[in-house]
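As a next step, the fold was encoded as tokens, giving this record:
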Amino acid sequence: MNKLIGKSLAFVWRDFINQTSYKFSFFMQFFGIFISILTFFFLSRLIGDVGVSYLKPYGGNYFSFVLIGIALFSYIGVSIEALSTSIREGQMLGTLEALLVTQTEIPTIILSSSLYSFILASFKVAMYLLLGVFIFGIDISSANLIGALLVLFLTIVSFSSFGILSASFVMVLKKGDPISWIFTSIFGILGGLNYPISVLPNWLQKLSYLLPITYSLEGMRLALLKGCSLRALMPNIVALIIFSFIMLPLSLFVFGYAVRRAKIDGTLTQY
């Protein structure tokens, strides 16, 4: 356990040094959060009470609805893209082969390579919520924090599966990574990121319920904006557990196969 923690901290420190070496770009990420919130705040004022019937299950306020969506999507984006980005950088810098021939197990590499990105995403989400509450006045006083944290954990687990699949494509195809772009686009359109899925045609609504993001966003909004109990959140929690049990073992198997194939082909150092 101590060895695992030590290796994970080494990965985090490496990524932190790399990120903060570009100081202006690092701090602009947080400035961009404020700009994003401000944009949706003014957009919500333009929309006003239009579509309030669609937003009623989530409190009826568009700004709070979309703020929770874009905050959670920070985690989803990291879950899908962090590992593949780390693998790609390792290929280009020539450090991937050295890492994979060590005694470090693949699950440890997967966890550690994404850990810094999740820590940074947590700071971003905290900024979204703090700015939303203290500057723009959204009300989460009745939030079910335990339910929200449980939904968040299951969201990270289920979406990390897509990130591992994405990294598998990068491992084999190098530049070719159709997974992250395709799924991020589909999730953004059908998952209820910027609008409730109830505005979609019936046939698209049925498709949206086949995606884990639908349950993640709905569960998080119900927990934070409505303070729903764990019992009320159970349909979303069970759906995310099912996605996790199916996708995580499958993605780990695919990634292990991709690593073995790259070793056999001798393409670990190619980019």
Residues 230-265 form the longest helix (36 residues). Residues 2-265 form one domain. The two ends are 33 Å apart (CA to CA).
